[in-house]
Design a protein that fits this description.
By secondary structure, the protein is α+β, with helices and mostly antiparallel strands. 36% of the residues lie in helices and 29% in strands. It has one domain: Gcn5-related N-acetyltransferase (GNAT) (Aminopeptidase, 3-Layer(aba) Sandwich), CATH 3.40.630.30. Helix 1 packs antiparallel against helix 3.
C-alpha cells in the first residue's frame, strides 16, 4: 500500500536512512558529486525545516521517494529536487510526487525552479512536453499556477 506524507524534523532519521541507502550513482545524481555517509548525515542535520517542505512516498514503512521544496532568496520562488530509491518505479513516482509538490508550492510561491544538472532524467522528461516549463541553460522554471491548471492534463 503506497502512501504520501509531509515529513517533519522528527522524520530526519528516516530521511537520513533513505539517502544513506543510495549507491554511488544515486548519490552523484542527487547531490551533484561524490558524498560520504558523514556528508549525508550533515546534509540531513542541516535541513532548515521551517524553509523546506519534504513530501515522501512510502510503501509500507519503507521510504521510496522524496520531493523537497526549498525556499530561495526570492519569496516567490521555490527550488524542487527529487530522489527515488533504486527499487522505485521512477516514472510514475515522479509524476505523482510532482503533482503533490506543485500543490504544496501553490500555497506559498508562484514559480518552481529545478537545477538541471542534478535533476532526475524522469523529472525532466515529465516537464519537457509542457508549454509551461521553460528550460534555461542551468534550470527549468515552471509557473506554479500554470502547472496546476494545465500540465496534469497533458
Amino acid at each position: 500500500m503506497r502512501g504520501f506524507q509531509v515529513l517533519s524534523q522528527k522524520d530526519r532519521p528516516r530521511l537520513e536512512g533513505f539517502f544513506l541507502a543510495f549507491h554511488f550513482d544515486q548519490r552523484r545524481e542527487y547531490f551533484g558529486g561524490r558524498v560520504s555517509d558523514e556528508q549525508i548525515r550533515d546534509y540531513c542535520r542541516d535541513i532548515r525545516w521551517n524553509e523546506t517542505t519534504i513530501i515522501a512516498s512510502f510503501c509500507g514503512a519503507r521510504l521510496d521517494a522524496v520531493a523537497m521544496l526549498t525556499a530561495t532568496a526570492s519569496p516567490r520562488i521555490t527550488e524542487l529536487s527529487m530522489a527515488c530509491a533504486s527499487t522505485c518505479d521512477r516514472q510514475p513516482m515522479v509524476a505523482e510526487l510532482l503533482d503533490l509538490a506543485f500543490a504544496a508550492a501553490s500555497l506559498s510561491c508562484s514559480q518552481i525552479i529545478i537545477q538541471c544538472e542534478r535533476a532526475m532524467p524522469e523529472l525532466l522528461a515529465v516537464l519537457h512536453p509542457s508549454p509551461f516549463a521553460i528550460f534555461d541553460v542551468d534550470v527549468v522554471r515552471v509557473d506554479v499556477p500554470c502547472y496546476g491548471a494545465k500540465i496534469v492534463a497533458c
